[in-house]
Amino acid sequence: KNQVEQSPQSLIILEGKNCTLQCNYTVSPFSNLRWYKQDTGRGPVSLTIMTFSENTKSNGRYTATLDADTKQSSLHITASQLSDSASYICVVAGYGGSQGNLIFGKGTKLSVKP
Amino acid sequence: GAGVSQTPSNKVTEKGKYVELRCDPISGHTALYWYRQSLGQGPEFLIYFQGTGAADDSGLPNDRFFAVRPEGSVSTLKIQRTERGDSAVYLCASSLTGVQAFGTDTQYFGPGTRLTVL
């Protein structure tokens, strides 16, 4: 069964600190992996999209890594800010199948405290 | 439009009533998706449209749920005989082509409609 698992479920860090969120998937055949940021009461917003040939991609203070062999991805946030408080959702796209081929994780809820 | 819009932003209804939720996608986007999100969970797929047709409705939980996109733009999610378990945020997203396999088709989400069934 195609699944996307994220850890930790929630995380609290102090402003200015770095953190890393994890995503493991079993989607096969794999096409690409996305990270979304979802602020409370808002819809998710795309941060990065990585295909199987890409190992890392950055978007400002956000850096995503992908290991297609071990089927793992991480999202690293550098020098966290209060505005980084949100849920971060990992989404994996596969080939074929349906639903536009997107499998969503449950998200990691990040709280950045002053 | 500038982004995906959804109306209403909040809907409170009584058990057994009928509700309609509306989604206005980004102009020109052929693909439209509906998701349901419960508190603390990721979005759960409901239905995906390519143009006017439902390309995949495998996520609709039962026959009380139905969605249409008659002109290939605006979509309406319809829920009959609402139940308390239907309470959730209903998210709509659109993308340019709906071809997710190449990593070039970004989904843009609306703010969601929060449905509360009393």
Describe the structure.
The complex is a heterodimer of chains A (114) and B (118). By secondary structure, chain A is mainly beta. Chain A has strands at residues 4-7, 10-14, 19-25, 30-38, 45-51, 56-59, 62-67, 72-77, 86-94, 102-104, 108-113. In chain A, the strands form two sheets. In chain A, strands 2, 4, 5, 9, 10 and 11 form a six-stranded mixed beta sheet that branches. A five-stranded antiparallel beta sheet of chain A has the order 1-3-8-7-6, with no helix packed on it. In chain A, a hairpin with a 2-residue loop joins strand 6 and strand 7 (62-67). Chain B has 118 residues and is mainly β. Chain B has strands at residues 5-7, 10-13, 19-24, 31-37, 44-50, 53-56, 65-68, 75-79, 88-95, 108-109, 113-117. In chain B, the strands form two sheets. In chain B, strands 2, 4, 5, 6, 9, 10 and 11 form a seven-stranded mixed beta sheet that branches. Chain B has a four-stranded antiparallel beta sheet with strand order 1-3-8-7, with no helix packed on it. Classes of the chains: A mainly beta (114), B mainly beta (118). The A-B interface holds A 31-32, 34, 41-46, 49-51, 89, 93-95, 98-102, 104-107, 109 and B 4, 31, 33, 35, 40-45, 48, 55-56, 58-59, 91, 93, 95, 98, 100-104, 106-112.
